[in-house]
Amino acid sequence: MPHVEPGMSVGLFGGSFNPPHDGHLLVTELATRRLQLNQIWWMVTPGNPLKDTAALPPLADRIAWSEAINSNPRVKVTAFEASHDVRFTSETLALVRRYNPGVRFVWIMGADNLADFHRWQNWRDIVQAFPIAVIDRPGATLSYLSSKMAKTFDYARLDEGDAALLSFLEPPVWTFLHGPRSPVSSTAIRDGLHKP
């Protein structure tokens, strides 16, 4: 895991990054600025239990691509999940908390993932354990109104104007951040519809 100090605010941004692209950079820049983060970790996952990962490029390649696209010194590319043999986000977050006492973490996810968030293993535990920032994505702007997570935890939604407070608040708490959106997606790149 990247080095952090107690009292720091750190965003956790997980994904397969297959491949990383400008949309990931836009989410990173928006989250870092609006949440006033000291660091943001790109957690390159070994795989996704909800997706077919048979054709996933090697982890080492995806780490190298992620490092090559990043010039922001606050971004730390890591793949610690593979070395700790964790499979689910809930396990990852428990591991992060155990090794980094006193650090204020925020889970960062794209709004496109919010629709299926209730299918994640122990999704309610994730919401109860970490503040969450949901970043707007094309075609998913209204997900904060319709998703099961958003409806279940509607009472815990923080106005995005107060987003800088998110890492200081006790969960459950989440916010939805609007901002510039990129139409680029890893799927579209793999399908030849966009360039990285």
From TrEMBL:
Record-stated family: Belongs to the NadD family.
Gene Ontology molecular function: any one: ATP binding
Domain called Cytidyltransferase-like: residue spans: 12-191
Keyword Transferase: yes
Function of the protein: Catalyzes the reversible adenylation of nicotinate mononucleotide (NaMN) to nicotinic acid adenine dinucleotide (NaAD).
Keywords: ATP-binding, NAD, Nucleotide-binding, Nucleotidyltransferase, Pyridine nucleotide biosynthesis, Transferase
Catalytically driven reaction(s): nicotinate beta-D-ribonucleotide + ATP + H(+) = deamido-NAD(+) + diphosphate
The EC number(s) this enzyme carries: 2.7.7.18
Pathways involved: Cofactor biosynthesis; NAD(+) biosynthesis; deamido-NAD(+) from nicotinate D-ribonucleotide: step 1/1
Pfam assignment, any one: CTP_transf_like
Gene3D superfamilies, per database record: HUPs
GO biological process, one term: NAD+ biosynthetic process
Top enzyme category: transferase
Protein name: Probable nicotinate-nucleotide adenylyltransferase
